[in-house]
Amino acid sequence: MIIGFVVFSFAYGLSAQPASRAMPWHGTPLQALAALAGAALGIGLYKLFRRYVEGGLDTEFPLAVATRELGTGLLFGFLLFSAMTGVVWLLGGIQFQGVRGMGNLWGMIALGIISGTFEEILFRGILFRQFEAMLGTWAALAITSILFGAGHIFNPGATWFSSFAIAVEAGILLGAAYMVTRRLWFPIAIHAAWNFTQGWVFSVPVSGGDAPQGLLITTRNGPEWLTGGAFGLEASVVALVVATLAGVFLLLRAIKRDGTRPPM
Asked: Model's pTM, two decimal places?
């Protein structure tokens, strides 16, 4: 587990560079292609790691179900964030002022691909799987959720509440998404679509930072519990409730389908 986490953290950093805004092809289709190539290399490295370091077979990335599970996850992530944004809009926390156009389309596609692929390999493919084998399902879900939230504490605009929200809403949701299939395609797609939808479709900060130039021109006004403040809508109470409910739904499906694992 330790070797895997170190290797894929390093690979995450390397793969993010060609897709970053510092490259000359930033804002062009090449940026998205660079991210796709980095993700493909990361998946290939994971297969090699499972085979030659762990000494087992890769069951997390079977190609036969990739199209179906990626498509389902992308749609699920898009609809989930759109539903949550709709609730915030009904409560007066976000206003739509017009359509910008393409904006930073290629950069947001690249962000979704790279963050979705490598963060799910790290937190679900490496940490969750190994903690579950040692300590059981519930301990693995709790530990990886806490670590996932803590991993966002140094993001721009982060607060203790934003990290708590990420731990609960995303930790449960993505952990359960992995448990439903015991594969990584589905959680990767949900993660990527969630980031892409909030950043490009609704022009909302993705886990802190500046608001991206996305498809829709939006402004957020109101208390931080509703808008999420500088961190973005992920830190709103609405996101905490909606995404956690979706995570519990997936968790119940996972328990019914495949059950849980006891400690070793």
From this structure: 0.96
User: What average pLDDT does the structure give for the chain?
Assistant: 96
pLDDT band for position 246 (50/70/90)?
very high
> Cα 255 from chain centroid?
22
Give CA–CA dist 17/216, Å, rounded. Answer: 27
- Tell me how far apart the alpha carbons of residues 216 and 103 are, in angstroms, rounded to a whole number: 9
- pLDDT (tens digit per residue) in 41-55: 999 999 999 999 999
Whether 26 shows a pLDDT value over 90: the answer reads no
- pLDDT at 63 exceeding the cut of 90: yes
CA distance 124 to 171: 10
Query: For residue 264, which of 129, 125, 123 has the smallest C-alpha distance?
Result: 129
